Amino acid sequence: MDATSPVPDARTHLALQSIRELLAAQRRRIRKYAESYQDEDENPGRDRDQDHGAAAPTAAVSSTPLPPAPSAREVLEALSVPALLVAPLLDDDGRIQDALYVARNAAALEYAAERLPQGGVPQWSRPASLFERFPSLAGSPLPDMLTEALRRGAPQGPTLVEWVMTTTHGPVRINDQVRVAPCGEHLLITWERGHRLHMATAAQQLVRTCWAEWNLGDGGVDPSRGFRRVLGIPGHADIPTLSELAATVTPENLPDLYRTLYDVILRKRTSVCELRMNGAGSRVIRMTAEPVRIAPGGLVWALRAVLTDVTAERRRRATAERAEREARRQRERAEAVAEVAGVLREAVLPHFQDEPAAYGLEATTVYRPDAREAGVGGDWYKARRLPGGSLLVALGDARGHGLAAVTLMAKLRYALAGLAYTEQRVEQLTEWLNELACADGAESTATAIIARYHPERGLLRWTCAGHPRPVLLRDGTARQLPDPEGGPGLPLGVLPGTPYTAVEVSLRVGDIVLMYSDGLTERRDSDPDLDTQRFLDAAQECLGGAAPGAGHDALNEYAERIVGELDGPHRSDDATLLVLRRTAMSASAPQRSTSAP
Question: Rounded to an integer, what distance in angstroms lies between the CA atom of residue 88 and that of residue 97?
């Protein structure tokens, strides 16, 4: 096999011993049966207790004269295989130069009619040159076989002889197992179709399958040609007996082999097992075995088995199972992360449409998570009532995806909520938030729009930290709000000590402000200006010629239309749209303190 079998431990030794005893017991049964059968054959109908000393009757020698020996033609026709009798023609060196037809039998004519097109074999009625009629035979092993049979006076073959015959219908390839035997002064060529044997051998190689029959009486083995190759046995090594085969099987498979042998030998039924062989190759052989009985219902005389090398199949299955386990582990992890992320999302991304109503605002949000990252990302938003009578409104996008991003955005969101209670201006709030992100590490970067709405003046003051600027929708036209003086500020967490400038915009009743994250518009390798224009076009087109109807539901429907227009399979980040609309001032609006910034 591939390698020497290891020294067996005690359990393996017992398993091997059980298999040997099972086989030895069956051998004893077969021998006992054979002895009984032989005794009955020698003394038919006699009592075994009779005296065996009596002389057996002697057969009389017949004086009838023998019939005459059959002729060469009669012997030739008696052969069941195609046969051709040829007369050798030798050259000066004693090698066969040509061979002349002398006779052929009916089986040869039937073969020609079956294998060759009608009229493909030249007609002949007298001795004719074999190699002139079939020139390609001269280049085959046949001339050497004829020479050796004549020189040695001994049969040659079987040898595969392949040759091509040109006919009016095209070339015909023929391959046969040929034998050549001396026959007086002539040579007898017989052949059988060889392609069946070679097809069987090729099939064994293609599917790595072989077969064998083990004689349980004497331990003999009759294997197929591919047996050694399938089991990894060197070409010069003997075919193993069943006991020797068991010694090459790994210990964990010995019980399966014993069960199969027991089923076949004693239960007399077909059985299947898989055997992993010892050695570096670690071959896995599927063995399908059946009993060969002396007579129906009688003793099992031999075990016939088909053996298939399923090593590659098992390796593929093991690889697939590992991949499946890994996929299951990743899926379970993703589900766990999704569950945690869902809880965080509900905690961090609030439903705040009722709170801005006290400030004369209607508000709605549409959030689309990145499905690849457990349903949550770095987008965040905030609307919070402040003691001075103003309303904090913010939207941001923390760097990254998954739990790392949601952790960062939670830090920023809650930090902003606390800092806003200082009643400092939004410029200062943004600077503080930047310092906090810078102190958190190089990876803690984010973009944000931080705004405060003053309801008594309808004034929105906002800063930009590397984020897409808000869009104002007024009188059916969408336009981006202007940059702060000096341009938009750096994203949070990039550079400490960065100053930020606020922009003021007065909102009329009916004005709509749209704040969004770049995941809604960003395309791979796209131009940011084109992304912005795409958003402006969608915001305006989704109006349908009229402003959204009154009430939160109508505003939310408009926001959903915008997101539906821009969203798609191209998106590689989570996306958020926050919509504010100024309405008539509510009587319950909180009063602004004189110190509010």
Answer: 8
| Helix axes of 254-265 and 10-42: crossing angle, nearest 10 degrees | 20
Band the pLDDT of 392: cuts 50, 70, 90: very high
Tell me: the pLDDT tens digits for 489-526? 999 999 999 999 999 999 999 999 999 998 888 877 77
Q: Which structure tokens are listed for 553?
A: 């539901």
C-alpha to C-alpha distance for 500 and 434, rounded to whole angstroms: 10
**Following DSSP, what letter does each residue of 344-366 receive, concatenated?**
HHHHHS---THHHHTTTEEEEEE
Q: Cβ–Cβ contacts within 10 Å for residue 59, how many?
A: 6
Pairwise CA distance, residues 310 & 213, whole Å: 20
Beta pairing class for 361-368 and 300-309: unpaired
- Of 519, 504, 374, 494, the residue nearest 443 (C-alpha): 494
CA 453 from chain centre, in angstroms, equals: 59
CB-CB contact of 177 with 191 (8 Å): yes
Nearest to 375, CA basis, from 329, 337, 326:
337
Which H, E and C letters describe 427-496, residue by residue? HHHHHHHHHHHHHCCCCCCEEEEEEEEECCCCEEEEEEECCCCCEEEECCEEEECCCCCCCCECCECCCC
First vs last C-alpha separation in the chain: 89
Cis, bond preceding 499 (omega within 30 deg of 0): no
Provide the H-helix boundaries in 170-250. 195-207, 227-231, 242-247
Cβ(301)–Cβ(274) below 8 Å: no
Give the pLDDT confidence of 17-71 residue by residue, as tens digits: 999 999 999 999 988 888 876 666 556 555 544 444 444 455 555 566 777 877 7
Give CA–CA dist 552/559, Å, rounded.
11
- Written as one letter, the residue type at 150 is L
Residue 83: phi and psi, rounded to 5, are -140, 145
**Strand intervals (E) in 330-431:** 361-368, 377-385, 391-401
CA distance linking residue 8 with residue 96, whole number of Å: 60
33: left (phi over 0), alpha (psi -120 to 50) or beta: alpha
CA separation for the pair 216, 174 (Å, rounded): 40
Radius of gyration of the CA atoms of the chain, in A: 48
The gap from C-alpha 323 to its chain's centroid, in whole angstroms, comes to 9
DSSP 80: S
